[in-house]
Amino acid sequence: MYVSKNVSLKPYNTFGIDVAAEYFLELNKEELLPEISSDNSLPQKKYALGGGSNILLSKPIEGLVIQNLLKGISIENEDEDHVWLKVAAGEIWHELVLYAIGMGWAGIENLALIPGTVGAAPIQNIGAYGVEAKETIESVRFWHWDKKTFITYSTAECRFGYRDSVFKQELKDKVFITSVVFRLNKKPVFNTSYGPIVQELQKMNVQDLSIKAIAEAVIAIRSSKLPDPRKIGNAGSFFKNPAISADHFELLQTNYPDIPCYPFNDTNVKVPAGWLIEKCGWKGYRKDDIGVHEKQALVLVNYGNAKGDEIWSLSAEILESVKMRFGITLEREVQVW
Ligand code: EPU
Q: What is the structure's pLDDT at 180?
């Protein structure tokens, strides 16, 4: 086990923020976790780092950052209809999607090209284009830092919600996810409920719908709207889409007849935060190295050497203006370290 000191995290976060971690460790064997737990020379405070695609580094990190490099995919079980796949948390999410498509196993094709690792998928129940990770997650295994033991949670115990789970609530900073079991479908059920997918499939002139075609459509849509973190630093959607009451929505509709919404639950509807932010005039905004993406107002960007606290301040200004104009308080989706 090799622990480095004072390591720049710039290559390890898609926002490309340059701050140092006091201690840094690459973890490629889960058996090391008990050892790390009982090593009193290491800091108490531990940070689990996956692909670094949903974090905003606001200050130098005091503590031990552990990069999850656990690898491996194996079949746990299968029957005529399904395959249960155990995937180590350090596997790259998009590579898992491509692997599943190659094997003809359906369920995660709509989630193509989402940056990050498999271990991050359950934390915020990643979702896109009409599908959420929770629909295929069977269980999640993790190391609990205080209990000093490995635990496996079922889907119910993970308490998944919209971009939410127990790992963002009670278990926040308390666990290190080591693997996830997915239940994939050998007999695909296609999900093209998200309008732009159908349009994209038509554009691609797809005759026979397949999971591969859906993934290609998703990749095309994502690439056209979302900035590539290798070129422009970003962490995808910075805010969640807020849920508001039907009454509040009706009130807004009188002033903004074109306001979009999606059904959420019996009493609330979800409104696209990107639309609200754009209406407040932020889309394409740039000041020095920080900005709001020109094609998707929900994405804050680092054009070069932005500092985490500058991005945080910009997000606070956006929050304030959306609140003033629409009476809606946005919630940040990214995790702030
Ligand atoms: N819109 C605007 N202006 C903008 C951006 C969006 O008016 O600048 C409008 C669009 O015209 C559309 C609506 O908002 O009517 C929704 O936009 P889009 O389809 O781009 O999706 P989103 O609601 O902004 C969510 C997820 C994305 C996911 C897409 C597709 C959240 C916080 N974001 O974005 O997830 O890829 O739907 O399913 O739920 C992420 O979480 O990092 C992420 C990228």
A: 98
